[in-house]
């Protein structure tokens, strides 16, 4: 079988396609014949050695979907023929995040999914909604679970809330769909008017081009008649954090997800306390959240937005497409 490895972790040149034996499932494990994958911004960080301790030789990607071809001794949770995705942190099943969950993150701390066959623990997979294509289903494990955790679990989104989504990447556009599913009013920002058109087609009620209007927080206040938004899905990090605070209503929720502008920076702590802002640290989510989200996706018929699909042979081109940030939604791969 073929798989990709990051021979070094010094950038996209590290991505190497290699021939390996098909692995065999041990007790409690399953063998998955993968059919589709998706990329996340995190995969660029991993390839560049900027995400956790760099691990040369790592198989990249947290997000992959496939069909179980063989089960090891004692497996009863899933069966041969089930279409499943791996969960981002193999060690986070339910409840609060375990302190060492990051050590079990696919495509980073441990080998990931960009392989024609993968062996995972039977506990580390979920069945994916039947109506989704393989590429759509492969869009779920990182971006969608993160968006679900941020909006539903941590921020307790309710019908009538106003939700702000920053940019049109994978997390933000899936979060837009979940916000609409819950009856929210949505405001999407982007650097591109063409991408804002896509966001409107996905249900954005208001759009703001943050290049043309860098004080997008003012625009949010104008749209909400001065009240501020109930939730800002914070994917920017230090470069957008203070504007996100300014765009929120008193008591509003700020699920803190992204590092697009870096991982350190000055933060207006006084603004947080004066406005009683609830800042939630978000690190993807548990298997329980993934299952809960899948039920909502199945019931609603929602389809994650795929910007562009590449072949397994073209993984490097897919990474480069993500790196150019010309996409809106998810970048996927299929066999
Ligand atoms: N904490 C977690 O568990 C977790 C999980 C998933 C993702 N993340 C993080 O969340 C972020 C987004 O991930 P992703 O996979 O969705 O990325 P992505 O698909 O690569 O999206 C990138 C998009 O973000 C927008 N953007 C970039 N800089 C921006 C800025 N300063 N202000 C507003 N928007 C900006 C751009 O959209 P426009 O071109 O439309 O402006 C860009 O295309 C990343 O930092 C990622 O590491 C964290």
Layout: helices, strands, pairs:
Elements: E1 2-6, E2 15-19, E3 29-39, H1 41-47, E4 63-71, E5 83-86, E6 117-121, E7 125-127, H2 134-137, H3 140-154, E8 162-166, H4 170-181, E9 185-190, H5 193-201, E10 206-209, H6 216-223, E11 229-233, H7 238-247, E12 248-256, H8 269-274, E13 278-281, H9 287-300, E14 306-311, H10 315-324, E15 330-334
Parallel strand pairs: 8-9, 8-11, 9-10, 11-12, 12-13, 14-15
Antiparallel strand pairs: 1-2, 3-4, 3-6, 3-15, 4-5, 5-7
Helix pairs in contact: 3-4, 6-7
Are there runs of 5+ residues with pLDDT below 50, and where?
A: none
What's the tally of helices? Answer: 10
Subunit arrangement of the protein = single chain
What sort of overall outline do the alpha carbons produce when their principal axes are compared? globular
Q: Which ligands accompany this protein?
A: NADP nicotinamide-adenine-dinucleotide phosphate
Termini Cα gap: 12 Å
Mean pLDDT: 97
Helix content: 25-40%
Q: Can you count the beta strands?
A: 15
* Overall number of domains: 2
Using the CA coordinates, give the radius of gyration.
19 Å
Largest sheet: 7 strands, mixed
Q: What would you note in describing this structure?
A:
The chain is an alpha/beta fold and 335 residues long. The protein has two domains: 2-139 and 304-334, Quinone Oxidoreductase, Chain A, domain 1, CATH 3.90.180.10; 144-281, Rossmann fold, CATH 3.40.50.720. It contains ten helices and 15 strands. Strands 3, 4, 5, 6, 7, 14 and 15 form a seven-stranded mixed sheet that branches. Strands 10-9-8-11-12-13 form a six-stranded parallel sheet, with helices on both faces. The protein has a two-stranded antiparallel ribbon with strand order 1-2. Helix 3 crosses helix 4 (170-181) and helix 6 (216-223) packs parallel to helix 7 (238-247). The chain is globular. The model has no long low-confidence stretch (mean pLDDT 97). Bound molecules: NADP nicotinamide-adenine-dinucleotide phosphate. Residues 40-42, 142-143, 146, 166-171, 189-192, 195, 210, 235-236, 239-240, 257-261, 282-284, 322, 325 line the site of NADP nicotinamide-adenine-dinucleotide phosphate.
């Amino acid at each position: 079988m073929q798989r990709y490895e990051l021979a070094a972790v010094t950038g996209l040149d590290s991505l190497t396609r290699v021939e390996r034996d098909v692995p065999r499932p041990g007790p409690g494990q399953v063998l998955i014949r993968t059919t589709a994958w998706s990329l996340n911004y995190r995969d660029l960080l991993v390839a560049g050695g900027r995400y956790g301790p760099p691990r040369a030789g790592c198989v990249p990607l947290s997000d992959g979907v496939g069909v179980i071809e063989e089960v090891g001794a004692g497996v009863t949770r899933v069966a041969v023929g089930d279409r499943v995705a791996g969960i981002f942190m193999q060690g986070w099943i339910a409840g609060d995040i375990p302190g060492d969950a990051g050590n079990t993150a696919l495509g980073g701390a441990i080998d990931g999914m960009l392989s024609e066959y993968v062996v995972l623990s039977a506990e580390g997979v979920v069945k994916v909604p039947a109506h989704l294509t393989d590429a759509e289903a492969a869009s779920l494990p990182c971006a969608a679970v993160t968006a679900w955790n941020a909006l539903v679990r941590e921020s307790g989104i309710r019908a009538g809330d106003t939700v702000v989504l920053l940019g049109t990447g994978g997390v933000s556009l899936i979060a837009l769909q979940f916000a609409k599913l819950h009856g929210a009013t949505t405001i999407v920002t982007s650097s591109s008017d063409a991408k804002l058109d896509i966001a409107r087609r996905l249900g954005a009620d208001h759009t703001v081009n943050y290049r043309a209007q860098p004080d997008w927080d003012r625009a949010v206040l104008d749209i909400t008649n001065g009240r501020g938004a109930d939730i800002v899905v914070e994917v920017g990090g230090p470069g957008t954090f203070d504007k996100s605070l300014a765009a929120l209503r008193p008591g509003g929720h700020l699920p803190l997800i992204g590092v697009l502008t870096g991982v350190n920076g000055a933060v207006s702590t006084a603004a947080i306390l004066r406005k009683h802002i609830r800042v939630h640290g978000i690190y993807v989510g548990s298997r329980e959240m993934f299952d809960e989200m899948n039920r909502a996706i199945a019931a609603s018929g929602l389809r994650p937005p795929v910007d562009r699909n590449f072949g397994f042979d073209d993984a490097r081109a897919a990474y480069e497409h993500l790196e150019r940030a010309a996409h809106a939604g998810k970048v996927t791969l299929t066999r």
